[in-house]
Amino acid sequence: MFRDDERTRVIEEVGGLARLGSLAAELASEAGGERVMLVSDPGVAAAGHADRAAEVMRAAGLEVALHVDVAENPSSDDVAKAAAAAQAFGPVLYVAVGGGSAIDTAKGANFVEVCGGRMEDYRGHDTATAPLRPLIAVPTTAGTGSEVQSFALVGDGETGAKMACGDPSAAPRVALLDPELTMTMPRRVTAMTGLDTLAHAVESAVARPRDPSTDGRSRVYGGAAFGLVSAGLPCVLEAPEDVDARARMMRASALAGLAIEHAMLGVAHSMANPLTRHHGVPHGLAVGVTLPHVVRFNAADDSVEGDMIRRTYAELASAAGLAGEGDRGLAEALAGRCAELLALADLGTTLGALGVTSADLPALALEANEQWTARFNPRGVDAAAFEALLGAAL
Ligand SMILES: [Fe+2]
User: Fold this and answer.
1) Ligand 1 center to residue 200 CA distance, Å?
2) Tens digit of each residue's pLDDT (9 = 90 or more) over 284-330
3) Where in the chain is the domain with CATH 1.20.1090.10?
4) How far is the CA of 279 from the centre of ligand 1 (A)?
5) Where does CATH 3.40.50.1970 sit in the chain?
6) Which residues pair with 153 in a beta bridge?
7) For residue 236, how far is its CA from the centre of ligand 1 (angstroms)?
8) What is the CATH number of domain 187-393?
9) CA of 302 to the centre of ligand 1 (A)
10) 257 CA distance to ligand 1 centroid (A)?
């Protein structure tokens, strides 16, 4: 069990879903009611996790409404549907059981139900016009980190572009990490969410801080998450029933999520959005394929910031037991390890293998350069740099 000094109480426990009833009852009673809006997705519901969650909460005396109409990359329309269901029911507490899509939909519904309007009204941070209702996040994947974040990532209803909508009160009050819930993930999902966690750890460790007063935390959280993924991802791919390895991946996801909360991300994520939108490359795979090239690009920075970037990469590599000569050698070892983990995922290691051609690169580069994450990358980028990066990953 660990707790960041901010908002979310993180509980790690094998079989911990059984505690959801008492945790929810406590927060509902604090909020002065007993109605809980449970948000999940069809796949997680089919695996039985949503019904289990509803059962343990009903056994604790709560009234539960279940909303499972959640899309894989939720848009503001999906959020509007969940918010309408919540408005009709009148919850005092939200519970999300699922991957990032379910958690982000619950956060979005919380914004719209409490503050009115549409998701588009809450872009940015500190945008809630009233304190949101408490939320318990119960992740069933180990990847997004949304379980500890104050942001919801939701697609703009018209353009499809990802909007980050955040508020301190949107962060889950409790993140309940039960590794048993991740055992039902297909191998492909385990691999892609694992690569996403890897990219979160490595990108946030060097990203420009959102708030200079918390500079340094992202390096600590990101570094810890990288070590857990470097050791844990091969284990969960080889032995999906290994509950200890599953627990390490869940912890990595939450730690990397906290790192993002302090420092955002970088250009692997900037390139991922257009790759997903225009070429259907799943998010985790898109960041996984470009990440080794991003590490090499950042490590080659010759400006004064380059030394710091290489130092941080070297720290990550050393802490995970990788070997290399000097900071440059260790940074290369880090890039190499990212490439090894991508190869182990066995889902393709180049953009070419995923259907992207050289003719696609200029448009992808332009769109990547417009993503908000690009501004947090430690080395400055422009469209030409993006085209070179995409070309290296081709
Ligand atoms: Fe990501």
Assistant:
1) 6
2) 999 999 999 999 999 999 998 899 999 999 999 999 999 999 999 99
3) 187-393
4) 17
5) 2-182
6) 164
7) 19
8) 1.20.1090.10
9) 27
10) 9
Ramachandran assignment for 265, one of left (phi > 0), alpha (psi -120 to 50 degrees), beta (any other): beta
Q: Please give the distance of CA 96 from its chain centroid, rounded to a whole number.
A: 15
* pTM above threshold 0.85: yes
Compute, in angstroms, the gap from residue 63 CA to the centroid of ligand 1.
34
The tokens 């995970």 sit on which residue? 320
Whether 20 contacts 56, CB under 8 Å? yes
Q: What is the Å distance from ligand 1's center to 144 Cα?
A: 6
Which residue type is seen at 74? P
349: left (phi over 0), alpha (psi -120 to 50) or beta: alpha
DSSP string, 63-88: EEEEE----SS-BHHHHHHHHHHHHH
CATH of domain 2-182: 3.40.50.1970
Distance 331 CA to ligand 1 centre (A): 21
- The per-residue pLDDT for range 207-242, each reduced to its tens digit, is 987 666 666 888 899 999 999 999 999 999 999 999
DSSP 84-97: HHHHHH--SEEEEE
Task: Identify the bridge partners of residue 98 per DSSP, sorted by sequence position.
Answer: 139
Pick from 73, 55, 72: which is nearest to 64 by CA? 55
* Angstrom distance (rounded) from CA 97 to CA 184: 13
In whole angstroms, give the CA distance from residue 155 to residue 162: 4
Distance in Å, CA 203 to ligand 1 centroid: 10
Dist. CA 266 → ligand 1 center (Å): 10
Largest CA distance in the chain: 62
